[in-house]
Amino acid sequence: KNASVQFENVSFRYRNDLPWVLNDVSFTVSPGEKLGIVGRTGSGKSSLIQALFLLYPVEQGRILVNGKAPVISRLPLDEMGLEEFRS
Q: What is the pLDDT of residues 44-57, one digit of tens each?
């Protein structure tokens, strides 16, 4: 499927006592657009993907797919379930 992905001021860390791995990251990838992620070891490449698939909770900001954020415990009509979000 082609989908847009939007990071809005996303900040992420693995534990509260650790430094931010991603700090206020914002970008948009349009449907059909390809994005390469490059950087040195420890620069946050894997953490960006883990945040995208919500493998760890994002503390600040939000991640949208086609303008919708995932909702794990309830499913309002304007949101989508985690399984659909990840697909």
A: 899 998 888 888 88
